[in-house]
Amino acid sequence: MQREKIIGINAVREVLRAGRPIQRLLISEQRRMDRDVAEVLRLAKERGIEIRMISRDTLDREARDSHHQGVVAVTSARAYATLDDILQIPAQRKEEALFLVLDGIEDPRNLGAILRTAEAAGVHGVIIPERRAVGLTDTVAKTAAGALEYVPVVKVVNIVNTLGELKKSGLWVVGAEAGGETVYWDADFARPTALVMGGEGTGVRRLVKEHCDYLVSLPLRGNISSLNVSVAAGTLLYEVLRQRRRGR
After folding, report:
1. Residues 6+ apart with CB under 8 A from 245
2. What is the pLDDT of residues 220-236, one digit of tens each?
3. 3-76: CATH architecture
């Protein structure tokens, strides 16, 4: 497998806590005594991970000038889960299924932000397409701030076929669309649900929309005609949690 670089204090700390194999830890010499870095160093030492103190310039090159906060972990590339893997998770947790299907997210920061919110909201798995979408890059991992260690991500060849598999497993497939016929708070999210979010600028593709059970919309009262996809995803996921907590 290719190497992956986990960049930033929060992301590296969660990788260490999750027990993911790490080849080595790179720390900027200028930050070796910082309180924020102390826990990262402690966790690495407990696991016997190689720690290298290097100059800031060298670390900049290793992180390709990303905002690394003086901490970079080198590990094996993150493996994708399978659809069968994630379909088993709800029963294991004794919860109603909640999956997130992302139809063409291209901005790695948006994907990272969505994964971070998905982890916080208890999503059982995130599904992304193999083509015309961003994968699990270094930037995604950094923005997700450790969420990749806890949220399984599945990469599929065909989103439409995958929606069919989800339906066969008893899930309701709900697409988010500006012109959706149901306002999101009127939808029934207490049932096993797969939320489908579209890509930046284009939204959910026509064929994918046609394979949703129904479409929901988020009311917009201002002059801007749409929300950032990561904000929309967070709004919908927490409506799911609200309804399920109230036992709708």
Report:
1. none
2. 877 666 788 999 999 99
3. 2-Layer Sandwich (3.30)
Token pair for 155: 């990469």
Tell me how far the alpha carbon of residue 57 is from its chain's centroid: 30
Q: Please name the residues in contact with 18: beta carbons below 8 A apart, sequence gap of 6 or more.
A: 146, 149, 150
Q: Two tokens at 94? A: 């004794």
Rounded distance between C-alpha atoms, residue 77 and residue 99, angstroms? 23
- Domain locations in the chain? 3-76, 83-246
- The confidence score (pLDDT) of residue 2 equals 55
For the CA atoms of 81, 14, 193, 108, what is the dihedral angle to 10 degrees? Answer: -80
Asked if CATH classification 3.10.20.70 holds for the domain at 83-246, the reply, yes or no, is no
Over residues 1-31, the pLDDT tens digits come to: 456 888 888 889 988 988 888 889 999 988 8
pLDDT in tens, 178-221: 888 999 999 999 999 999 999 888 889 999 999 999 999 998 87
- E-only strand ranges, 64-192: 71-76, 98-103, 125-129, 153-156, 172-176, 182-183
Structure tokens at 55: 């100059």
**What SS3 class is residue 10?**
helix
Distances (CA, A) of 46 to 19, 32, 49, 166: 11, 17, 8, 41
Whole-prediction pTM: 0.77
Q: Which two tokens stand for residue 228?
A: 């950032």
**Two domains, one topology: 3-76 and 83-246:** no
